[in-house]
Design brief:
- With 354 residues, the protein is mainly alpha-helical.
- It folds into two domains: 127 residues, DNA polymerase, domain 1 (Orthogonal Bundle), CATH 1.10.150; 202 residues, hpI Integrase, Chain A.
- It is built from 16 helices and four strands.
- The strands form two sheets. Strands 1-4 form a two-stranded antiparallel sheet.
- Helix 3 packs antiparallel against helix 4 and helix 3 crosses helix 6.
- The longest helix has 19 residues.
């Protein structure tokens, strides 16, 4: 009995390990359970876009290299070998981090009926030789870029790009905007939903439910776009469905950037421009977070959601010109703005503006 006690064979931890090995669960089986669980759980279920990204990670790298292993065998040494293979394949440091993090979550998701981890791990980034994430490419636009992009855009896309740059909205949030989300005076937007893959869903987090104050010139541009409509989406296809992010990139934004001799960039570049502009103008961080919503580098503090904060944001709008510093006013006066009517919403070839 003393020998058994000294070996630890009669401990609860050893019992859980033996039970786990006997179950014979492979990494692939646990990953499949994990992906279904994180989407259906009541506590912080992941969004469809996140689920698609994680599923791609599991399918492309994790299952081919770890899938056949028993979950109990996935440890620091196994991840070290995986990281070495990904580095040899020239994956970026950020991508490697993402794959490794998902692998760790899959292992941690295996629990006993009492909620105890079946495979507790003390992960070591040093031993795994996990590369440091440095100098990530985060393309952004300048005020001059935004002015040219808005000038070159046609129809509803001109309004869309101006709105993205002047508010910092995510493209999914902008695509889900309805006429009823505009305040009575036209100076405030209410963010309450988002679009992904053509489907309406709740915003990214609870902090994404917010109100954004508009600069008068941007508000006027938006009102001209709405026209006499009292309901429906602000931006839609010819059939009245939500706009497709991929189609807009291919048919409008990327061709415009090519004509302007700029590298390809996504819609998030408008958001980065907005954050940069607000910070250059020394906007208080609480107000910035309130307007921008959830963002990794802006989420260090809890964002106040009280009526006082909303009122403060309205007062701020009157005190400082923190909205668009690109030439929106001149553009909105000189350019023809099409109303929401679907027949004017088809993407057209842009024309270069001198």
């Amino acid at each position: 009995m003393q020998i058994i006690a000294e070996s630890g064979a009669d401990t609860e931890e050893h019992f859980r390990l033996v039970a786990a090995v006997n179950l014979g669960v492979t990494f692939t089986q646990q990953a499949q359970w994990f992906m279904a669980h994180v989407q259906a759980r009541k506590r912080r279920p992941i969004k469809p876009a996140t689920a698609k990204s994680w599923r791609n990670c599991v399918t492309k790298w994790l299952n081919p290299h770890l899938g056949a292993l028993p979950l109990s065998a996935v440890n620091n040494l196994v991840l070290k070998e995986l990281v070495s293979r990904m580095a040899s394949a020239k994956l970026s440091a950020k991508s490697i981090h993402n794959y490794v993090q998902i692998a760790k979550m899959v292992v941690a998701s295996a629990m006993s009926e009492h909620g105890e981890a079946l495979y507790p791990r003390k992960w070591s980034s040093e031993f795994i030789d996990l590369p440091e994430v440095k100098n990530q490419q985060t393309p952004t636009f300048s005020a001059e870029d935004v002015t040219k992009i808005v000038a070159c855009a046609e129809g509803q896309y001109r309004v869309l790009y101006a709105l993205l740059a002047g508010t910092g909205l995510r493209i999914g949030e902008a695509a889900a905007l309805e006429v009823g989300d505009i305040s009575g005076d036209g100076m405030t937007l209410k963010i309450r939903q988002s679009v992904w893959n053509g489907r309406m869903q709740t915003p990214k987090t609870t902090n994404a439910f917010r109100e954004i104050d508009l600069h008068p010139s941007l508000a006027a541009m938006l009102q001209a776009h709405v026209g006499q409509h009292t309901s429906g989406l602000l931006f839609s296809t010819a059939t009245g469905k939500p706009i497709s992010q991929t189609n807009i990139l291919k048919r409008s934004l990327h061709p415009i950037l090519k004509e302007l001799q700029r590298d390809k960039a996504g819609f998030h570049s408008f958001r980065r421009y907005r954050v940069t502009h607000l910070r250059k103008n020394r906007v208080p961080e609480d107000v910035l977070r309130f307007w921008i919503g959830p963002q990794t580098r802006l989420s260090r503090a809890v964002i106040p959601r009280s009526k006082t904060m909303c009122h403060f944001g309205s007062c701020v709008r009157q005190m400082w010109d923190w909205a668009s510093c690109f030439r929106l006013k001149a553009l909105s006066q000189s350019a023809m703005l099409h109303p929401i009517a679907p027949k004017h919403c088809r993407c057209q070839r842009f024309r270069k503006v001198n």
